[in-house]
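Sat 14:20. Reprocessing the chain from the morning session after the first attempt stalled halfway. Input below, unchanged.
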Amino acid sequence: MGHDEKKGTIILDNFNSTANLTANPGFQSTLSLGSKDVINEKAYNPFEHRKVSHPNSTIGSLVHLLKSSLGSGILAMPAAFKNAGLAVGAFGTIIIGFICTHCVYVLVKTSQEVCVEAKKPSMGFAETCGAAFEFGPKKLRPWANFARTFIDYTLTCTYLAALCVYVVFIAENFKEVLDEYYPEYKLSVEAYCALTLVPLVLICQIRNLKWLVPFSAVANIFLVICFAITMYYIFDDLPNPAERQMVASFTQWPLFISTVIFAMEGIGVVMPVENEMAKPQQFLGCPGVLNVAMTIVISLYGIVGFFGYIKYGDTVRGSVTLNLPQDEILAQSAKILMALAILFTYSLQFYVPMEMIWRELHSKISIKYHNFMQITIRTTAVVGSVAIAAAFPDLELFINLSGAVFLSSLGLLTPAIVDTVHNWNRGLGKYNWILWKNILVMMLSFIALFAGSYVSIVGIVEKYNTTHNLESNMNSTLRT
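Finished this time. Tokens:
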């Protein structure tokens, strides 16, 4: 055909089997089949989509994580060693510390991976558990909402129980000091619990994690000073280690496990801390915020537990500061500093249950009442924790039971299950080593849960019966 071809004629010149529809500028397809841009589409990066109004620095996040794990639990470690013996306690602390760190790692790692699949910038603890089921095996996907709700409520109960322990700890340390210097005004532990109410209500009105960093920093300073004073007394005229048990009765080991888990676990604070980091990619890895924090935590816990038990033996109390001399100002100052450190830590731990409670309620409340309801809910929660602490003021038994029931479930069992579900379709490693590893972690959590709870409850019943019998005997004596 020449130059006189008619308009609309289809030219078959240079025809081949591949249609190049986009070669003609007059015909631009909106669908680029096999486009390199589509094939190599950049994967969703949750870190790039996070918009945190007040992000924490890496150092600030490390401070928060240390503060969440370095609390009253460190001073309960000598009592934990009493239930294990020096040899079992030393090895057990390292092993349990490693397992706790690993469980936190797999939880955060799973959270970061499911954020990519869900295309969400960040997820909390409960959201992560729900998403693991939602994007896991098809048969387990209907359980996603149940997993999310169950973790939410369990986490709330866990941290409310921990807050009760904090109140008892603060009350007992203040009582030890004030009873020494003002014996004419001796009050019960329950009364001191009540006296903590006003400062705790005020400090818990702080709603932003960033503004809690100074409190965590001050608490850490107090903790270091208290730790130094306590270690001074522990190493002063240290007895021969041969005088202590190397291996305690096997029946007492569950109390050791539950106490160490309670002391080390800060798993509920982990996700809020990671979610509010300016550089969340620095949370995991080597060295990383998690590894640095947990290395410090495990080392300090092992040192205090080992030498504290050598010093005080079977007479060691729920908090080793309570074993310090009553008639020395330096020892008494350590008790006050520790009580203040725990007072400041209370608000950080309170952040976790309050976050869940407010997430459930804020959409059901008119915006103009949000501030009023925040104040009311926070005040009510603090009053409740103080009331429970006053009702059950035995520190050591409270720590054992809380660690056995709540933190063994959340800190060990839940991450193991979530890790297994998340990797079920993605591969469980050579010889299914991820599955076998998680089964061992689950077995440890069940030992802490059932055996620890049983021994703790028996101890509480015996303590109650002993107290009741003493009161009955005293009443009988008075009558005669």
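Confidence is low (pLDDT under 50) at residues 1-39.
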